[in-house]
Amino acid sequence: MTATPVLVLLDHAPDGTLRAPVRELLTLARDLAGDAGVHGVWAGDQDVAAARPVLAAQGVTAVHRLVTDADPHVSDVLADGLQAALAATGSTLLLLVSSFENKEAAARLAVRTGAGVVTDVDGLTLEDGRVVAHKTVLAGTWTTRCAVTTPTAVVTVKANAVPAQDAPAPSDPRVEDLPVAVRPSSTRVTVVERSEHAASGRPDLGSANVVVVGGRGTEGDFSPVEELADVLGGAVGATRVATDEGWIGHDAQIGQTGVTVSPRLYVGAGVSGAVHHRGGMQASGTIVAVNSDPDAPIFEIADFGIVGDLFTVLPQTAAELRRLQG
């Protein structure tokens, strides 16, 4: 157990509700902290009230709301706020959800404080008082253990790495304002415009429990992929070829130069399994591959493989699932 509270950055939507992976981080933090407790860090002007039921169910002791006139969506500003939270609580372990924005802020924070930083972690343990992170590297071909040798550790954790579980007893988290002195250099970048994607009704790709992916084999027709994803309540992803061809937006790209996913269930349709794609999905729980080419590399890592036409297999699967769901 840690001697100081474990800090967790509370990623939230514009309406103040917590993003799904945060519950997983709070569960992990609670296991590591023991009696030291879990504290949350809240960045943004949104009211904490919408998140309070989840925070209470997770046993969070306190929430530190960063107070600053600067925009916390800027990574430098967020790093300033996280540094203030570490100093105010004396915490030696900060957990963040793995995302492009959070990994950038974590890196900046580590440079400023001399903390050890590990990103895209699959698991976390304490061994002889030292934080040890478990992660896959080299396109998912190796599993490593990274021991943090500095007094403070900053760790970003992949979504779906830990099953979320409520605390044995709920808490009554107190909310405290934490003034943040933002460095002048942190305000050199400002947000001039922000636009939101049209809601698709599907979960976020990076944190979805189920991801259905289309590749070159779709030949641009993603309708079977989208249909199966909707039946399963999952997200839709794509390979680099599919996004480069303009068949789907680049924000759906999975791989070393795209989004890294680790869902409980990954379904690849018409996906060959090139190394740059495997690097972004090989940590998935169960991998199902549908491809007409029996020699496709993805079958080497698939738990279940179907050699067949995706335009036949996926609609039949969706129809059978609907029948079973009643």
Automatic annotation (TrEMBL):
Pfam families associated with the record: ETF, ETF_alpha
- Give residue ranges for domain Electron transfer flavoprotein alpha/beta-subunit N-terminal: 6-191
The cross-references to InterPro entries, in alphabetical order and at most eight, read:
DHS-like_NAD/FAD-binding_dom, ETF_a/b_N, ETF_a/FixB, ETF_asu_C, Rossmann-like_a/b/a_fold
Which cofactors are required for activity? FAD
Q: Which family does it belong to?
A: Belongs to the ETF alpha-subunit/FixB family.
What does the annotation say about its assembly with partners?
Heterodimer of an alpha and a beta subunit.
Q: What does this protein do?
A: The electron transfer flavoprotein serves as a specific electron acceptor for other dehydrogenases. It transfers the electrons to the main respiratory chain via ETF-ubiquinone oxidoreductase (ETF dehydrogenase).
Which PANTHER family does the UniProt record give?
A: ELECTRON TRANSFER FLAVOPROTEIN ALPHA, ELECTRON TRANSFER FLAVOPROTEIN SUBUNIT ALPHA, MITOCHONDRIAL
The name this protein carries in UniProt is Electron transfer flavoprotein alpha subunit
